[in-house]
Amino acid sequence: MVAPVLQKAVREVLKSLSPGSTMVAADLGCSSGPNTLLVISEVMSTIGAYVQETADDSRAMEVQFFLNDLPGNDFNLVFRSLEPQLRSSLFAAEEEKAVPAPCYITGLPGSMYTRIFPCQSVHLFDSSHCLIWRSKVPEDELVSGGRMVLTFAGRKRGEMPMHGGVARVWELLSEALRHLVQEGRIEKKKLRSFNMPYYAPSLDEVTQLIKHNDLFDLEDIKLFESIWDAHDDSDGDVVIDCSSSAESIAKIIRAGIEPLIVNHFGKDILDELFMVYVSILAKDLEKGKAMCPVIVVMLKKSKH
Amino acid sequence: MVAPVLQKAVREVLKSLSPGSTMVAADLGCSSGPNTLLVISEVMSTIGAYVQETADDSRAMEVQFFLNDLPGNDFNLVFRSLEPQLRSSLFAAEEEKAVPAPCYITGLPGSMYTRIFPCQSVHLFDSSHCLIWRSKVPEDELVSGGRMVLTFAGRKRGEMPMHGGVARVWELLSEALRHLVQEGRIEKKKLRSFNMPYYAPSLDEVTQLIKHNDLFDLEDIKLFESIWDAHDDSDGDVVIDCSSSAESIAKIIRAGIEPLIVNHFGKDILDELFMVYVSILAKDLEKGKAMCPVIVVMLKKSKH
C-alpha cells in the first residue's frame, strides 16, 4: 500500500530533474534488518520503469542514497549486505534490463532531531514508522519542490484517539504493566508517572495540520489497514496460532519502545514485562486479528 | 608534513566556492582507528581559520564529509565515535570560537576500484597510504577545479627502485618468507610465484606521470622522511628498544598486506611468518631507525 505512493513520489522527482543530474534520496530510520534495502530497491525499479517508458536516454542520471539511523544502528550489517555479490541480487530485476542508473549508497549516522543534511540537498525523503520520534520535519534539507513520503500509524475516521487498532496493543501493554504492579515488581507511582509519547492521528487531523503548516502541499494521503503480525498471511479474521502471533507482535512493540521502558522502569523488568504481555496478547487475539490503521502521505515542499 | 598541504588544498577549495554553498570532501580508505577522524578535524579547523581571517560571514557554508572504506570496515566503531558527546571533543578547538560550519559526516562503503560518487560531486579528495590499491584516479567524481591530496610511500632521489626505506622492510619480509621455506612450511615454488604489487616512485617519476596524464595540474609535491615506528619519538638514529619497535612496524606491515599473504600462502602461516619477521626486523633495527620516504602531492583537476 505504501509502494504505489513511493513510486508516484519518485516519478514526480524524476520529472522535475534536469537531464543528467543526480537524484538524492534518503531513508530516515533505516534500521538494519531485512527491510532496510527495500526502499532503495523500490526507488531503483521505479527509475528503471520510468526510463523504459520515456525511452529518454538523454536523461542518464545517477542516484545518491543515504541510509539514516542513530549512530548505534548496525551499519556494518547493512554495508556488508551491499557487497558486490549480494548487491547484484538486490538489483536482480534491474540487472536483467540493465541497471537504470548508478546508485551510490551511503550510511548517515545521526538523530533526526538534528540537521543531518546540507541545506536543500535532498530530493526525496522516505520515513516509515520512524517519524513519531521526530519533532521537526526536515524541510530545510529538502530542495524546493522535493517530495516526502511518510508512513505512520493512524486511526480510522470516527474512532476516538484512545480507541482502535493502535490503542488496542498499547492498552494490553498497560494491562501487563498493571499486572507487574500487582506482583510488586513495579511501584504504583512509577506506573502513574509513565507517559507514552504516542498519538495516532486521523486522516482529517493530518490533512488539517499540513494545510495549516503551509510548508508542504499535500499530494496524496491514504489510510489502510495493516496486520500487526506481518507473518500471518491467512485469510479471514481468525488468528490460527494466537501465541506465536502474540510473540511476533510483542517483538515489534518491544523493538519500538524498549528504550522508553528501560529509561523509566529500569531494564530488570523487561523480559518479565514482555512475557506477561505475550500471554495477555495471546488471549486477546482469540477475539480476532490485531489490525493497525496506517497512514501514508506524500508531501511536496512548497515553492516559497 | 601532510597537514600543511591538506590545509592549502582546503583553502583553494574554499576560495573557489560561491557563498553559501556546500563543500563536499571525502577520505578514501578511512579505516576505523584513532586516526580516522583526523582528516575531518584538520579540514574543519582550516575552515575555521579561513572564516576568521576573511571575516566573511556571507560565505556561511556547510560541509558534507564522506568516509570511504571497504564494506568490511568497522563503520559502527567510527559512527559511535561521532555521537554528540564524543563529537564535541573532536571539534573542541572549533567549539571555542564557534563551529565554523555545520559538518555532516557519512559513511561510504565501497571499493575504490569502482565509482563511488556521482559525477562531479566532490570538491576535495584525501587519501593517505591507500592509493596504492587503486588502479584508477577518481577524476570523474571530482568537480572541475577540485583538489586531491594523496600521500604514499616513495623513494629518495638517486635511490634505485628496490633500495631505500620502503624496500628495506619488504626485503626483511622476504627474508622471513625464505626462512619459512627452509623450515618446510612454505613450498619453494609458492614463494617464487609471489609478487608484491608495490612500487615506491621518486618525486621525478610522479611529477612526470602527472604531467603526462594531463588530467590534473600538479600544485604541490613534497617528499619527507617518516619514521616507520610512529611510537618512537626519540631523537637521533639509534633505536632504544629494538624488539618493541620491530613489533610496532610489523603491525603496520601486517595491516597492509595480510590479505595478500593469506590469499597466496593460506592463513596457517600468518602468525609464524610475522613472529619470524619481528625477530629479523629487531635484529636489523640495531643498525638504526627504519625510515620511510613519503610523498605528498596536491592535484587540481584541469578545467578541460
Automatic annotation (TrEMBL), chains A, B:
Gene3D superfamilies: Methyltransferase, alpha-helical capping domain, Vaccinia Virus protein VP39. Belongs to the methyltransferase superfamily. Type-7 methyltransferase family. SABATH subfamily. Keywords: Magnesium, Metal-binding. This is Uncharacterized protein. One of its GO terms (molecular function) is metal ion binding.
